[in-house]
Inverse folding.
């Protein structure tokens, strides 16, 4: 009997222990569930930029420091109205808008489906599938088509029947629109015609538009000279010379505080009046096409990377590792300007192992300037600027489309607007959706090392090891 009681007591104790262990496990499970729920609730309150990691190969959700710093300084409330059906909108655009809006407490985001509320289109004076940015404090609005955010290669469609995405431009469009409703600043740039110039590429013109700058074309002789509203005159790759009257117009415009950018033609043409313009401001054009045998790309001396001096304001937007690529450039040297009030500085130069080549029998070695700016203070509020580049390849679409990691257009836009004190220094390139390429600025000894020396050393080492193992 006592033996049976002992067994019964043991079973009861085991049961109580099992019950306590089960209760503990159940409590622990419940606590874990509650913790997960609370954690998810907390995550739901986090800004979109922290809650999700950008795993896209292009990094379309990585907002640039330029936009972050600009948005951090907003003083007025801005509303982003998305006039489309959110359910049919590209999910990348939806997420981007969430991340962008979270960057400032001054930004708010509203979706309105115009098929449900058609009056919203007449309210803002736009079509469906548009993003409208408004600021109540300034009473201004800016808008752009949603279809402008993702670019496509139309040639791919024409040839292959498929659309190839090229870039994502959401950040530039939004930041530009916000700046537009807050500042209201507009300027006009004119590019000359009549000298067989190359038109400024459309994509560069669009970059000016983002800065609220319009780009117009003008013939100085037939249109009556340089307009009063001209903030900058661009002369892009002329291969015919200025008339004497045109030269006088430009010199007078500069003497009164005007601003000019002259991109030389990358060919051997005789342009004495253009040369006089440069010499007046301390730049003497040399004969020949520049060939840089140190900074040439893939041993091509006429396609080269000039050295950049970022201490000059025309190039101070660039980083130490920024790359500028020139092709068939003219060169010049710095000389004494015509007036001691003119200051001239170079910011793009070749290496010392460079030649100005006229033909195979006429090559002059030296270090040449391919980018410089001359400034003259007219009064305490006005400074004239003449910026000269050795070639229009700085903004040639073949260059920046073929080498997506060069900073040519950034440099050009900055040098064109650095003299405008009322234009926000906002220059944001679209994010490329194409496969990136890597450009090596100089091969030289490194190319020899990685292409020949290291592979040869590995082969020799492998052969020696193989022979050694055979003997064993």
């Amino acid at each position: 009997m006592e033996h049976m009681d002992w067994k019964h007591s043991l079973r009861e104790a085991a049961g109580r222990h099992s019950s306590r262990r089960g209760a503990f496990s159940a409590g622990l499970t419940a606590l874990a569930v509650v913790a997960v729920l609370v954690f998810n609730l907390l995550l739901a309150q986090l800004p979109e930029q922290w809650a999700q990691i950008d795993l896209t190969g292009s990094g379309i959700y990585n907002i640039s420091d330029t936009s972050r710093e600009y948005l951090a300084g907003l003083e007025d409330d801005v509303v982003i109205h998305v006039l489309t059906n959110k359910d049919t909108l590209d999910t990348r655009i939806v997420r981007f808008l969430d991340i962008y809006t979270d960057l400032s407490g001054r930004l708010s985001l509203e979706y309105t489906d115009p098929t449900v509320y058609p009056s919203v289109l007449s309210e803002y004076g736009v079509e469906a599938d548009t993003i409208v940015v408004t600021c109540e404090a300034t009473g201004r609005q800016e808008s752009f088509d949603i279809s402008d955010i993702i670019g496509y290669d139309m040639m791919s469609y024409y040839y292959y029947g498929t659309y190839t995405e090229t870039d994502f431009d959401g950040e530039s469009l939004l930041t530009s629109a916000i700046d537009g409703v807050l500042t209201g600043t507009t300027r006009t740039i004119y590019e000359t015609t009549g000298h067989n110039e190359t038109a400024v590429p459309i994509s560069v013109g669009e970059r000016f538009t983002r800065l609220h700058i319009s780009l117009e074309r003008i013939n100085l002789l037939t249109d009556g000279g340089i307009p009063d509203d001209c903030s900058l005159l661009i002369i892009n790759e002329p291969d015919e010379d200025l008339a004497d009257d045109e030269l006088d117009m430009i010199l007078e415009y500069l003497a009164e505080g005007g601003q000019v950018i002259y991109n030389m033609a990358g060919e051997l043409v005789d342009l004495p009046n253009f040369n006089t313009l440069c010499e007046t401001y301390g730049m003497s054009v040399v004969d020949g096409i520049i060939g840089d045998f140190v900074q040439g790309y893939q041993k091509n001396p006429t396609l080269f990377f000039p050295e950049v001096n970022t201490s000059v304001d025309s190039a101070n937007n660039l980083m130490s590792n920024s790359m500028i690529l020139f092709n068939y450039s003219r060169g010049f040297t710095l000389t004494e300007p015509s007036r001691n009030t003119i200051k001239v500085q170079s910011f793009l130069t070749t290496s010392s192992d460079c030649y100005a080549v006229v033909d195979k029998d006429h090559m002059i070695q030296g270090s040449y300037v391919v980018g410089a700016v001359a400034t003259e203070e007219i009064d305490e509020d006005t400074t004239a600027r003449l910026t000269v580049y050795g070639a229009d390849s700085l903004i040639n679409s073949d260059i920046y489309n073929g080498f997506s990691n060069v900073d040519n257009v950034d440099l050009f836009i900055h040098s064109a607007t650095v003299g405008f004190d009322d234009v926000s220094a906002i220059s944001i390139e679209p994010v490329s959706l194409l496969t990136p390429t890597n450009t090596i600025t100089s091969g030289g000894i490194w190319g020899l090392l990685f292409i020949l020396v290291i592979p040869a050393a590995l082969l020799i080492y492998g052969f020696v090891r193989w022979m050694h193992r055979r003997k064993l």
The chain has a mean pLDDT of 86.
